[in-house]
Amino acid sequence: MLFHIIDIETTGLHRSADDILEVGYIRCNQDFRIVGHGTLYFYRPEYQIENPGAQAVHKLTREFLRQYEKDFEVNLAALYALVRDSIFVGKNSDAFDVPFLKEFIGKNIPELYSTAKPSRTLDLQKVCAPRFREWYKDTYGSTTKRPGRLEEYVSMLGYTDGCVKDEFAKLFPEEAVRNHAHAALYDAFMTYLVFKHKEG
C-alpha cells in the first residue's frame, strides 16, 4: 500500500479564481518508508503570483517560476497521475488541497475533472486538532479553538525547527532552495512526520 503526502502552494485561497504554483509530494509505504518524492512547479504568465497575502506565505517569485513554464503540460500530467486513485494524506486537505487540485486539473484539462480525485483521503487536521488543543492547554495553560498549524503539530511531537531542517536537508539535499515552512515539499515532509506518529 502506498500513500501520497501532498502539499500545495497557490496564488490565493479561492480555487475557482486562483491557481496552483507548487506541489510537493512524498510517497511512502505502510511502514512509512519514503519511496519517492518530488516538487512540481506551475507557471503561466497570467498567474497572479504577486498577490501580497499569498506571496508573503509561499515566497515564490515570477523570476523563479518562469523557468518551469515549458514543463507545464508534463507536470500537469504528473500531478493527475499522483492524484488519481491515490491514498492522499494532508493537513486540512479535505477542505483545501483535494478540492483545489481537482479544480486546477479540471480548469486545464476539463475532461479529467470528474476523475481528478484520490480514492481515499486522510486529513490529519481532523485527527490532530483535538490533540493539539490538549497539548496547547498543557503547554501554555490556556485554551484555544484553533485547529493548530502544521508547525505546531510538529512541535507537539517534540521536533524543533532545526531538527526538521536538518532531517529535510539529509533526505532532500537537492531541495535546499525551498527548505522553509510553506514550501510545498517542506510542508509535505512535516506532514509526513505527523502521519508517521499519528498513532502515537
Low-pLDDT stretches are none
Total DSSP E strands: 5
Straight-line distance between termini: 20 Å
Give the amount of beta strand, in percent. Answer: 15-25%
Query: Main beta sheet, described?
Result: 5 strands, mixed
The average pLDDT score comes to 95
Helix coverage percent: 40-55%
Rg, Cα atoms, Å: 17 Å
Annotation keywords:
single chain, 200 residues, alpha/beta, 44% helix, 18% strand
Overview of the molecule:
There is one protein chain. With 200 residues, this protein is α/β, with parallel strands linked by helices. The chain is built from eight helices and five strands. The protein has helices spanning 52-58, 62-65, 72-83, 93-108, 124-140, 150-156, 161-171, 184-196, and strands at residues 2-10, 20-29, 34-41, 87-90, 120-123. A five-stranded mixed β-sheet has the order 3-2-1-4-5, with helices on both faces. Strand 4, helix 4 (93-108) and strand 5 (120-123) form a beta-alpha-beta unit. Helix 6 (150-156) runs parallel beside helix 8 (184-196). The longest helix is centred in the middle third of the chain and has 17 residues, at 124-140. The chain starts with a strand and ends with a helix. The mean pLDDT is 95.
Outline of the structure:
This protein has 200 residues and is of the alpha/beta class. It has helices at residues 52-58, 62-65, 72-83, 93-108, 124-140, 150-156, 161-171, 184-196, and strands at residues 2-10, 20-29, 34-41, 87-90, 120-123.
